[in-house]
Protein 1
Amino acid sequence: RMLKRQIACRSDINRMNGAFLATFESLIPPEEERTKQKQLLALLDGIVSKEWPDARLYVYGSCANSFGFSKSDIDICLAIEDANIDKSEVLLKLADMLQSGNLQNVQALTRARVPIVKLMDPETGISCDICVNNVLAVVNTKLLRDYAQIDVRLRQLAFIVKHWAKSRGVNQTYQGTLSSYAYVLMCIHFLQQRRPAILPCLQGMEATYSVTVGNIECAYFDKVEKLYGFGSHNGESLARLVWAFFSYWAYYHDYANDVISVHSGSTVSKRAKDWTRRIGNDRHLICIEDPFEVSHDLGRVVDKFSIRVLREEFERAAEIIQYDPNPCVKLFEPY
Ligand code: ATP
Ligand code: MG
């Protein structure tokens, strides 16, 4: 394995910190959006409980994982205990009820990979997607939210990375690039790897939270209030972390051999997971293990064309942060 010399970070990196923090601040949703989301959720709760009195609505994704920007759509999961339900039937029935409840653009997509009903609430202007019994998404949303509580630099770094990915067009799974969920996991893994570490590995600690979803056991330490200050021995600034994140993915990550694993708090080998060859459509060109469904590679959507696009974008970002006098402008330039 080739040893690569570490590139030294520019000496004035901390001078960029204010610009990165300002970018982060500008993307945080204002409090009144939260109020509107609650209002819509209450409305939907009323509609759903008429037909399914025991069902519950859970918000997942960016509105609940603390990595959401202003004006995000809401992802909602309708949890129905009855195991014998037909998801398509539920979604069609739900779509009918929503339509009568005066919600707009109601559309049931029963044949999508994750079947959903889409809607728009004219009162708040919020759009949302409702799926049925996608409990794993609710649980991994909690894991992300719990990690974000431990050190503010995770949320700051992930906002910068997501904003970069959206600006540069590399946050589109249907085009072979990565989901926001994958980028947040890359940030968590990266902060677990810093020395001293900025984040612990919650799944490697004593489990204080545990649920079983299908045949997957989801267990981890969720008393994160006990971990405040965990990363305080590491004083790296946001700007330095952004620089190191992009350098890692541009120059140091071993694409041929390594899988990043939040579940184990380190990298694991592609060989051990048998992710060295293409199987069906899974090419494993960049390997990001799902923290609970560990047989699931979130990089599976990446193909031989989009891996080049991604790696060129990582290199572009690393170079801008290393050399550009004013990196925040060019880094987020629309593609
Ligand atoms: P955005 O701000 O871009 O909407 P998001 O946080 O909503 O970001 P998405 O990638 O849209 O992120 O995913 C929404 C949620 O769906 C995630 O938080 C996660 O719970 C779940 N999810 C998405 N992709 C996967 C996947 N491949 N496997 C498991 N869960 C996933
Ligand atoms: Mg989303």
Note: Residues 31-51 form the longest helix (21 residues).
Protein 2
Amino acid sequence: EKLEMFVDKLPHIPTLHGFHIVNGVLKPKSLQIGMFFKKWKFHRDLPATPVFAYGVSKHKATVPGPTIEAVYGVSTYVTWRNHLPSSHILPWDPTISPAIAKRGGIPTVVHLHGGIHEPSSDGNADSWFTAGFKETGTKWTKPTYHYVNKQQPGNMWYHDHAAGLTRVNLLAGLLGAYILRHSSVETPLKLPTGREFDRPLIVFDRSFRKDGSIYMNATGNNPTIHPQWQPEYFGDAIVVNGKAWPRLTVRRRKYRFRIINASNARFFRFFFSNGLHFIVIGSDSAYLAKPVSTKSVLLAPSEIVDVVVDFSKSTSKTAILANNAPYPYPSGDPVTDENSKVLKFIIKHKSETDTSSIPTKLVQYPHADVSKSVRTRYIAMFEYVSSADEPTHLYINGLPYNAPVTETPKMGTSEVWEVINLTEDNHPLHIHLGLFRVLEQTALVETEKFTDCMTEKNDAVKCQISKYARGNKTAVTAHERGWKNVFKMMPGHVTKILVRFSYVHSNESYSFDATQEPGYVYHCHVNIGSRRQYDDETFCDGQVI
Ligand code: C2O
């Protein structure tokens, strides 16, 4: 029997303030956040599910974890503690460049996705630690992370990032939202505010067994080599803020929703069943220059969209937030009845006065100035098969996980990256500790010829990329033209981006010591495992694609 939709109310995720107020003055705060094994009710009719959850205590731990609210210029310190048992609740493949704890236990490390701060607080995949810090990865430096909160206000999320385990640790529940507020920038905007009218919506897909446990296929797609590795995870149930297909009763007024796609591999193309519009005000961690009204929003895994929805414009009593993105995106199966529905809004009849507004201008940041770029890099993604028996690995520029570093950008500079996607899937490229703007998307011609050349381990320049990058151009969607930290790399296309390795609102750059470990990371965010680091080391391990 299928689970009945829209029976649970949309939960309020608990919030944790990342600051103190002492005599009216804002002061830094130190938080202790643990990872706990507990049970979580995802649906009224489903037995409680074993999960891994973040929280200040086991009792208070939630899925998603508490929303951390920080304010501009006030440091938040978090000591992340692992209280997990010795065995995982999900099957994971220890043969893929994993974090293997020799003395048992589950390696974890927390990355603040979208954060711009010191690299040693970034949650490098090899900075993992087990319960009680009994064992630590090769890049582990310290137990307390420092989030300096000096970047532009906006939305981030924290999630596990342990090498080889990221995808299962996320599936188990290790993720949460982080909001950075800056009152002198945001108050004049008069957007909907307060717990009731400004809410994160953290959306992910999961499959559940009858006993409530999370279902994940335990047989790898090539069991002789990788016993449990599955390239992409898709679940049938759509979970929002920890409940499967919840409902929310709303008033006839504007609401702000910070929508995070926390799925491992599922893209969502959101739309409202009654035609309501999204007024997009921000994308990933930054505000747009001005609001963009749109009927649908395509969100790749790990992308964030910040929207205002005006329910006073609704002509119907209910509206379903729906999804029609094929999976895998873009050429996979069409959505089913289950995964095409996300959240039901029940709109109150009574009209009311709404003092919030949608300003004509939001926040102005510098434009992408290509003339200031210090260099151009070519980043080619393609699936590489080393022998007939091996599963396909996604490599970046033909380099595996442990290859020496090739990208060593300098803090405070900008670079043009031309990302060449030779795979059949859309790959969300994510860059840590910086922001970028999407400049252009150009289709490749004679892709096969180019790919043949690339698999010989030639680079894109030697293979004369310019000869192939001359197909049709696809316009960048209006609400995706601001500063972002994730973007969808279309298959068969070259996507040109301008990456800025500093803050976007000032020329100041965070303090950075190029010799400091760990360095910077970029990777695809499908199943959050394929990654390649730059600056001090490099990898793209291919456990993902
Ligand atoms: Cu969402 Cu490397 O992170």
Note: The first strand starts at residue 15 and ends at 17.
Protein 3
Amino acid sequence: RRPARPHRDLVYPRGTEPSRRKHNPSIRVMQWNILAQALGEGKDGFIRCPLDALNWHERKYLILEEILTYRPDILCLQEVDHYYDTFLPIMTSLGYHGSFLAKPWSPCLDVKQNNGPDGCALFYHRSRFSLQDTVHLRLSAMMLPTNQVAIVQTLNCRATGRWLCVAVTHLKARSGWERLRSAQGANLLQSLRSITSRGSGQSEAESGAVPLVVCGDFNAEPSEDVYLRFSSSPLGLSSAYKLLSSDGQTEPAYTTWKIRPSGESCSTLDYIWYTQEALSVDSLLDIPTEEQIGPDRLPSYHYPSDHLSLLCDVSFREEPHKLI
Ligand code: NDP
Ligand code: CA
């Protein structure tokens, strides 16, 4: 009934396919706002998406198919409102460890027959990492608690012994909230700074700060203040998907594309940030073309969410003191 799912290429940013490194295998990271079931059916108003493409009992297989196609080592999800009944049991049976943090006042709860609040979820594969520490954060803005959250985990890479701190977040949506997003970003950066400087149990001076991967639906275009905050913070973060562009400096044209009664919205809101000094990006999953997405945009029978998944392979750079 449905044509095959469009293929997405893995792109090697420096034009060279890295040789397989047995002692430093790359770490596959996926970032995805999977579209909360209650919001997709009850709130979003995706007027060009066929209703049965939003049926959970079919859509969940498309989400799982996407995850299983790429088998990420680290999976960061937003808008998860089927964690306990779907993602936790399935991902656990596949060898993952999972962590979930609901939004304090999830808009899903306004929808009739909701499945509970939506929130962020973070999974890592147990064969690749052991867990040092999990921090659940409710983001603040100007000292006041907000409705947005983040999960931060400090992991130890079994293959290399190196530390990695992974974070997932979903910032406040909609235009008019740029200053709140910026303040939420500042709060998250501050927490990350404190977590990564004590993460491996040593002082920062002894160990160097723990490398970071921060995945999120920032609900902000690259022109927004919160993007500038992240790209210029003392943590030395860079956005992985810039490396897909020919100049290495430009974000993709879109990571979400949908049609609501208010009109068409095509924007870049999702990012994978990484510590540039400590990690290198070996490959990235290409963004589908406008033709592949199709005239009715997202979600659709092919794409179960209005956001595209982002995926990259990162690896640890040589530690500076080991180069001497
Ligand atoms: P956000 O504005 O961050 O948005 C919530 C969700 O709506 C996001 O997942 C977002 O998706 C989606 N969204 C974005 N734009 C649109 C749009 N144009 N139309 C439909 N959906 C859209 O919400 P908050 O976290 O600030 O929560 C607001 C809700 O929380 C209120 O509706 C209320 O129900 C509830 N609330 C209740 C309180 C209480 O006291 N009971 C207190 C505070 C909040 P994406 O990220 O993909 O853009
Ligand atoms: Ca949404």
Note: The chain is about 20% helix and 30% strand.
Protein 4
Amino acid sequence: MTKEEIKKELRQRLRDTYALELEDAGPVELFYSLGGLIKAISNEKWHKTWKNYLTEEQKQVYYFSIEFLPGKLLKSNLLNLGILNEVRTTLADIDVDLEELAEVEKDMALGNGGLGRLASCFMDSIASCGLPGNGNGIRYDYGLFKQQFVDGYQVELPDEWLKRGNVWEIRRESKACDVKLFGNVYMKRLANGKLQPVAENQTTVRAVPYDTGMIGYQNGIVNTMRLWSVEIPISEEAKYQSLDERRTVEDLTAVLYPDDSQESGRLVRLAQEYFFVSAGIQSIIRYYKKLNLPWHSLSEKIAIHINDTHPAMCVPELMRVLVDENGLNWEFAWDITVKVLSYTNHTIMAEALEKWPIYLMKIVVPRIYQIIEEIDRRYVTTLQGIHSQDLIQRTRPLQNDQVYMAHLAIIGSHSTNGVAKIHSDLLKSIVLHDFYVIYPERFNNKTNGIAERRWLQLANEPLANVIDELITDSWRKTPQDLKLLMNYQNDEAALTKIREAKLVKKEELANYILKTTGIEVSSNAIFDVQIKRLHAYKRQLMNLLHILKLYFEIKDNPEMDITPRVFIFGAKAAPSYTYAKSIIKAINEVANMVNTDRSLQDKIKVVFLPNYNVSLAEKIIPAADVSEQISLASKEASGTSNMKLMLNGAVTIATLDGANVEIRDAVGDDNIYIFGLTEKEVYDYYEKQDYSSQKIYDEDENLRRILDAFVDGTIPNIEFEGQEIYDALLKFNDEYFLLRDFHDYVKAQEQINQDYKDSMLWQKKSLANIANAGNFSADDTVKAYAEDIWQIEPIFAHTEK
Ligand code: 26Q
């Protein structure tokens, strides 16, 4: 498209939709008009892609995820369509700043954190690699809550992301499906002797899909992310007499549940899970039937991926559709189901492994529960005589009046993968060891990855441009080419350019911090960043203990030699997770105490930016010098902010947990700061049960002073929260070994303090991180899924044949 064509199109759209001339339009009208134009451009490619998959009968994967976290799409769509620069300069010609328009768009925040963001990186990569793949999820009216701080406390506000409408989606009423919930089911014997389930008093709701094009990176491919929204079917309208009754239906897709193991077990959440699973499976089978192929070919045309256990009802629902609705016999249907489905596990935390009370399942999805019972019954009988009774009992889906969703997912699929090497190994050796004994061939690893397009090309243009100058722009298509940067390890001019690019982003972030919090920070300081959900196992509190250590040291010795540091946090806590909320309050109070103490001479500052989300991540990550990845070894399945931060030249301080292990292998010990217990040492403690945090406290004077600060009034305004934290660390013996790892953590931090002073030494480490971040491209991750698990092929390869 030429600049003139872009201008003409914009003009026309502004007239048609807003009765405005270009000169009179504000950012909102311009954003929506530009969005409409982009959609029109991509729609042609979208339709072609879809037609192509259909006529070629390409095998497609459907990625079922209860969360997608794309963030904003404007710039990413422009980049992937290859018109980012044209549009930017065209707008500049008429005195419009693209960045200002981009700010108009609300983040699409239909996810909690890592799992949802991974799903969206995968959508970008699947399209960019030309793989035939679709997303299937829920279109929540309200995404993850907006976080504000009031007196240092987290306050949650609703996320009204749809208020001004969503330019990217297409409502496809013609593709709606009915989903049936509640009621009772009994088995009726037919004339031919077969049993048939008969349902009574069911509630039928309509699932209406809203499709969003997932635009591949400059390859003409546009895939579909399909999100389902609930409606009352027209035929059922009469049944709903009051607004209240209508509301119970409409509540189904009203709001995303915050990651909240303590609040789990809610009826609406279970209904949500079934709702998008059932709608998704029905629409896939409807499509497959159009192909007029025999049922045994289903697994040659369709792969369905279960992202964590939230969509695990895919197993019984696919069985239901094949057996009840299409008359297949159980064995045949089961064989197909296992071949079609695959499952990813994202956690080893026991409390996060999903289980549903049987009584609730019977209420919400009675037929699905019957099918689960049959799956359980057959599982037990089939393994009889092959495995021990104990093993069979421990692994069956139904136990203790609950349905174990992970068991269902593993038994009903052909592949179970973890998300980093150490995590997958732990699944095999400990967490899911019983299943590994039964199905060793089903287990595999797929280390997570990230979309470099968003996290470097878009988020960090200064660095991206320097990289182009040094190694050409081939890395933009092939992130592995970033390795070429290793040739500049001793090139001072190159290292300086990279440092200057970092400085640009640090200054931008410093301005943002000043504007939003009033806190002044210097871009000469080390920007030390910990951004992730607030969880005890992620140990934001250990970071805070280190900050307090520095605080006391500077107070005692105001002239101490320390590189100025700004500690930056971003984290939401689940609304009912009181301990996490107490940590937020404590960080905010320490921040206030530190930032207002002139005697510290700006040697340390603490900034807790509210409402951490994808857009804020795009501001923080490019500006980071130090990446905090300090979870207790064995607890973080993978982590993905670790990858985004290294890609932007931050150097990592880390435990050997999740993908940190592979990051260390990629960059080498000289370019990462590793500390703390290993996963094996953690498990040794569990076995011996001889950990005593009290002992460490008693023997370490400095640590005593730090912990006492929580309860002796040193940190103001945390009477309740301080006591809670103090007790967690001492009375309840420090579940996540903060005190055990603290000393080692401090030593690593001191090394960072030293090394940062030698600018070239530091830049060299930073370079090694950027250069090796190509190892963590989500493009490679999805290609591995495509080959090993889904057996799907890129569309180019197919057309070339
Ligand atoms: C549970 C109960 C009720 C409602 C919601 C939930 C819930 C919601 C979201 C439970 C868990 C999640 C999300 C988990 C998650 O994001 N896990 C992260 O996945 C990343 C991608 O694989 C990993 O990198 C992280 O290590 C892992 O913590």
Note: The chain has a mean pLDDT of 96.
